[in-house]
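Lab notebook, bench 4. The sequencing result for the construct came back, and we need a structural model before the next group meeting so we can plan mutations. Quick request posted to the team channel:

Model the 3D structure of this chain.
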Amino acid sequence: MPTISIIVAAYNVKDYITDCLSSITRQTFQDFEAIVVDDASTDGTAELVAEAAARDPRIIPVTHTINRGLHLARKTGVERASGDYAFFLDGDDDLSETMCADLVAQFQKHPVDILHYGITVIGENGILDEECRTFEAFNNTPSADTQGMRVVRSIYDEHLGQQVDWRVTQRAYRTELLKRAFGAMTDQRLERAEDGYECLVLSALAASYHACKDCRGYRYHYGRGVTGTNAISAETYGRFCRQFHDCFAAADDFATVHAELDLDSCVRGFKHKATELLSNDWKVRVRDNDKMDAAKQMAAIFSPTVTAREIWRHIRDAAWDDLSDPDRVAMDTITLWQTIADTVDVGPSEPDEAPRYWQTRSRAEELLKQLRRAQERRSYDGQPIRIFITTHKNVDKPDSRILQPVQVGLKPDSYRFPWAFHDDEGENISAKNPMYCELTTQYWAWKNIDAEYYGFCHYRRYFDFSDTEHAENPYGEIMDDYIDADAIREYGFDDETIVRAVQGYDVITTRYGDLTKIIDAHGTPKKVWEAAPKLLDEDLHRMYDILCAMHPEYRQDAIAFLNGNRSCFCNMFIMRREIFHDYCAWLFPMLEVFERNTDMSRYSKEALRTPGHLAERLLNIYLMHHQRIGSGWKTKELQCVHFTNPEPQETLAPLDANITDPIVPVVFAADDNYVPQLATTIYSAMVNASQDRHYDVVVLQRNIAWDKQERLRTFFRRFGNMTLRFINVDRLVSGVELTTNNAHISVETYYRFLIQQVLPFYDKVLYLDSDIIINGDIAELYDTELGENLLAAVHDIDFLGNLNVKHGLRMGYAKDVLHMQDPYAYFQAGVLVLNTRAMREHYTMDQWLEYASNPEYIYNDQDVLNAHCEGRVTFLDWSWNVIHDCAGRVSNVFSLAPNDAYDAYMTSREQPKIIHYAGFIKPWTDPDCDFASIYWRYARETPFYERLLKKVMQATAPTTSKKSGQAPHERAIGEDSKLRKVVDPLLPIGSKRREAAKAVGRMIRGRH
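Done. Here's the predicted structure in token form:
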């Protein structure tokens, strides 16, 4: 028996096989056998192999009578191998003379199952040297020794980063492992991705692995065979897809047969990585006019989701490359790919693939948006009017060639917005931004930009270029929320309006305000400075002295300004070139002297910004001086618009694609005041949640304080199968009049209409109110089959009871206002399984909000869903939304419902999966209400428990105490009090919680 077996798979390699076999016979280590499997070649390969075997008996030819593909050729070779060790050699590659000797020496030193060696790459058929070196470097990357299941996971498991390649021909094996592994492999023909499949099986069955990448005797000829880069047709690409798919199916089969190995994550990683390699052929080798057909073939073999994901990956990477090098912008190519992706993307409905798809697409769309903004920079040069918007963060900006963003505050590791100029380019004082603020933009523009007009705004504050007078706040500013289409129209942020507002003027500033009326009526600029708690009075005096010393002619202007009562603000102005350059030459030398003469090493963050504050005063002095000496400038004042939320609308991305458990997306809506109830509801859900599912919990909100969000995140980290996310939806409902005729309904209840847009990467989503307790596993609820129905919900027992009231008013309302064909099909909307895919197909978010604004509706949010979803509802078991008995409604209203409905409701009360505290009575307003004890069982475990107790005390405090703050003489909680019955078990006497609650009670009663 030889020490080592070399298995050569050969098919139509007549031009290369002689060199391959000669490299074997020249080995310095002679104890080998070379099993050459000719896979029914048609070009004379078999004859050359036979001739070599005649010269050297160690060459053992094996011939397939029909072509069976590379995988089965290797399998045949493995069956014939008899050496202690074995490795594969492709018939178009060759070996250095010491290859076998080096491998045997390594096996003797490291007696492992798999020995991973390096390769020497030789470019063929036009492959560039740079590409060869990159390929060689990747395949020779050092890798760590591994044992057991770590051998296979280090290659395929995405959680470990897929650190090792899967080239079967770059490994030597114990022959015993090789035979066992190939014996477990499929007997079906496999090609192209067969390496990935074979390496998966080999590594899964191996016990040990060692890498010796400095052993590079395998000479790989890059560019021969399937590694070529020649163009291929759509039909050929479709064949490639089928070949990859066959390899995936074989991997699935092996993982199923060997379930004890738990290879699901490895198979998934193999598919993802191999699909990327396959789609790279689509990108590089398929001609543009064939790409659409090729993508459709891929979609038919894999799925539209997988295909679209891969194309979006190419778009993402191209956009990133173009952002890194703006001169490389290839928008025509990106636009073509995007068109193809949209064509094959029929709406992802595969739970396993959708998160990865949406994660890739979301990032691509984010980069595309930045790329398009970056292209705007090309239109900035040559503009006669250039108004620079100073920013340090990603913000919305009007679509304008005049309004030009400049990023400031840059550090060596800062991400540089490709759509902005940067104040550290050219001659600059960017490093002084912490002190100079927006003045670093002014300095940069002074030294580097040529324009007729120079203007300066902030990412929050813009000039109002319109002719409309807008109301101002006490600080002389127009306040608005967002820089959106409405704001652009309202304030004239289009180039035409800006030009009309600017041309013909020499200097434009914000409005001069009367300091006896605005900014707390301090009266003078000097007193405004003195009233600023973080600014030092001596700094203002020092700058005054510097001004008088350097420009004595400005002395009286400085005195007049500081002691007057008028000022413009914010360092915002627009100036003609000559005036701007004169102003900068006057301003910056004085600030430099101030900085040199002032020790700011111990200043606070705000005090450190003193040069910026001083410049605001100096601008006024400069303008007053030129007005006094009669410079004849034509000036203008514009209002200032302050945007409170200039940042882009928050968006949610799909969860990390590495989350392998099936995801249950569940959405809540809450405000800052409702956080304790929200915490209780989510906690009850997670306590009863399945450990085999991952719960993506999304909270739609507008004003939940950051510290409360953090407390919730910290608390819920105990659940490893949950992700908690918040998204501010204020902008989405901005301008929509959301009213209701029911005083107990809050605006947050309308947020369910935003879900289909906020979570576009889910086809189905749970919506749950925040005044519920969940006793069942909501994964079971989520798994409800919807078919083509728009949603699933529980009948509304309250509404059904009202339908049967004698006067018939609710029946008339259901038919005449809601236009329902069957009013008894009315459902309760606090627990919903939403078919968001179908909802998106039938209604837009704006349509839902418009419908919900109907003033005729009683329960706007709920009524609109019933009015527009009737006939397309899956009705849930009553136990999934058990309405509690609010103010005796079970006997007074619910009992009037149809008999079957009432019986079903009463049965559901025995084992409710969800308890809904609908109506004006809640456990935190009446601790003795229906099902209250169940609520408090969960509430006491949350970090907001004491806040809920405070709500109880406020709700149950005597009326006189509420109004006057005076405590009554009797005990706050009497012996027979309902509250006492709840509080005593929850707050044992002598406990810390009891004392904390007593302190809260004293505060409420005025006993400080």
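Residues 960-1008 have pLDDT under 50 and may be disordered.
Will bring this to the meeting.
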